[in-house]
Design a protein that fits this description.
The complex is a heterodimer of chains A (341) and B (192). With 341 residues, chain A is α+β, with helices and mostly antiparallel strands. Chain A has twelve helices and eleven strands. Chain A has two domains: 157 residues, 2-Layer Sandwich (Muramoyl-pentapeptide Carboxypeptidase, domain 2), CATH 3.30.1380; 100 residues. In chain A, a hairpin with a 5-residue loop joins strand 10 and strand 11. Chain B has a single domain, classed as Rossmann fold (3-Layer(aba) Sandwich), CATH 3.40.50.300. In chain B, helix 4 runs parallel beside helix 6. The chains are: A alpha+beta (341), B alpha/beta (192).
Chain lengths: 341, 192
């Protein structure tokens, strides 16, 4: 499990931020949707052999923590339990910068992949954690006190801490150039698509909205320029995602009717292959989602993605593009056609 | 970590919500606004509600292939024999029409979808209901104004056909326009 072959946080962080932004409108129930991503992370990790299942929830949680620690998402996690109260302390927890940004928008949803995977485990045992308080030290040690209560759905109490931490001294973008292990990235990418597969094709609408959050993050935090001209904007995105190691090279060709993109040594390839083999056509590649949203923001709708593997990790895709303004619906004309035998 | 098996989740099931909301309505045309978490439960609940009242149903799917849906419904104890599926998601090279379903292909436009739905409704003389699953999917490729027009036309036709039924939309913060434009044309907006 080498960190060198992974992706940078520049790929993961905007994606996690985007995922939280998508479900903000649902309030506490949004966390239930995100915990479903946690179920997908667990499924991927177990079936790929990245961690082991345990009938003891405490041990199972420990296995997942170890996996994320090995992948560079956290240095160490310490859990102390007294009765129903649990103190969780994390060192160098990589979600902190995202949490800070989300909190600045008054969003308390948690998209830390390690946490949502653990939420999925405790939920399956009929237990939820009500968030009592949080603290962060200037050197980044984060402590959360939670009270375990019976439940299977999130409530305001399980999402918003009674006493939230002051994150004003937490740095935001400093980890962008650091790497996350590929298995952890893959688990998140798989979890995103797997989580919403039960919704069918309409889930792509949710996933595309992750792309909107990614764009928001890239523009606000990294001042990425996304010109109005679609091909130029996609090119800039491709440069960003290549720099952040989603692929060694991303080449794009955007015409008025089609987007063609090819990836060399694409870190999403393994997840894609698995999703397609499971009959899941939803796309969760952060770059592709962002391109779809970017086109939509320019009044262009991207159709179903067609993938082609040209090597183990070399992949190309095509997406038809239609101008939304061209899709008129003539109510009167269609009404009369409906009356015809 | 201690384990608790008692559930504190006490919200009413989808069928109860639907039945209670539509109690006083004869042949309701319903806009179902569904919490994404409860999507499957809501679909089953709506089918159970309408099947309890009307012998035949037309299920227009833009989300899942009819073969997948039929299996899911059967697993939930719903008899698919009384359903006709209009499948607008399975990839087929040309229109396919069978006794229990028609496949339009996955790139169908709003006009063709209307015509195919009308054709399916006209196949059956008996009393029937219509479920459109879902408006949200249409929003991936169409602007909300066009989707609202489409839904408006469909609800108008449902009344002319004397057909009850439901247009589904998953609560996604994207369909607000459609909901506000369509709500006046439906007998009820049911939140599940």
């Amino acid at each position: 499990m080498s960190k060198e072959s992974g992706v940078r946080f520049g790929v993961l962080d905007p994606t996690l931020y985007g995922a939280a932004r998508v479900f903000d409108y649902l309030g506490a129930r949004g966390q239930d949707m995100l915990d479903k991503v946690g179920e997908g992370i667990i499924e991927y990790g177990l079936t790929e052999g990245y961690f082991e299942q345990s009938s003891n929830p405490h041990e199972f949680v420990g296995n997942i923590v170890k996996f994320f620690a090995q992948n560079g998402y956290v240095n160490n996690v310490k859990i102390d339990q007294t009765g129903e109260t649990m103190n969780i302390t994390m060192w160098n927890w990589r979600f902190l910068p995202i949490m800070k940004k989300l909190r600045s928008r008054n969003s308390y949803l948690l998209t830390c992949p390690m946490c949502i995977a653990n939420n999925a485990i405790t939920k399956s045992a009929g237990v939820m954690g009500e968030r009592i308080s949080e603290q962060v030290t200037p050197d980044g040690m984060y402590t959360m006190t939670i009270k375990m209560v019976p439940g299977i759905r999130n409530t305001r109490q399980t999402v918003i801490p009674l006493k939230p931490a002051d994150l004003s001294n937490t740095p935001l973008a400093s980890q962008m150039n650091e790497s996350l292990g590929l298995p952890a990235f893959e688990a998140v990418a798989y979890g995103l698509a797997r989580a919403f597969d039960y919704l069918g094709a309409q889930a792509q609408l949710l996933l595309d909205k992750v792309g909107a959050g990614v764009i928001e993050f890239l523009q606000e935090e990294l001042q990425i320029s996304l010109p109005n001209e679609p091909s130029k904007a996609v090119e800039n995105l491709a440069l960003f995602f290549t720099k952040n190691q989603l692929a060694d090279e991303i080449r794009s060709q955007i015409s008025p009717s089609e987007a063609k993109i090819s990836f060399t040594n694409y870190r999403y390839a393994r997840v894609l292959r698995r999703l397609l083999s499971e009959g899941i056509t939803l796309v969760s590649c952060p770059f592709t989602l962002t391109v779809r949203t970017l086109l939509r923001q320019r009044n262009l709708a991207a159709g179903d993605v067609k993938w082609k593997f040209v090597g183990e990790r070399d992949v190309s895709l095509t997406m038809p593009i239609v101008r939304i303004a061209d899709q008129q619906f003539d109510e009167e004309k269609v009404a009369s056609l409906m009356e015809s035998p | 970590m201690s384990s608790h098996n008692s559930k504190i989740d006490s919200q009413p099931d989808a069928l109860t919500v639907i039945s209670d909301s539509l109690e006083s309505l004869e042949k309701p045309v319903v806009l179902a606004l569904i919490d994404p978490i409860r999507y499957q439960e809501a679909v089953i609940g709506l089918l159970r509600y309408f099947m309890g009242k009307v012998p035949r149903g037309i299920y227009v799917s833009l989300n899942k292939p009819y073969a997948v849906l039929a299996k899911t419904f059967e697993k939930s104890g719903i008899s698919v024999d009384s359903l006709f599926f209009v499948d607008a998601i399975t990839n087929v090279p040309a229109l396919q029409e069978e006794a229990d379903h028609s496949c339009l292909g996955s790139t169908v436009d709003l006009s063709s979808l209307c015509i195919a739905t009308s054709k399916a409704v006209n196949r059956f003389a008996e009393d029937k209901f219509l479920v459109l699953d879902s408006l949200s999917t249409l929003l991936i490729y169409n602007e909300s104004k066009a989707v609202a027009k489409f839904a408006h036309l469909l609800t108008e036709k449902m009344r002319r056909w004397n057909t009850s039924g439901s247009l589904l939309t998953v609560e996604m913060n994207a369909e607000k326009d459609v909901v506000s434009q369509l709500a006046p044309f439906c007998d009820k907006v049911v939140r599940i």
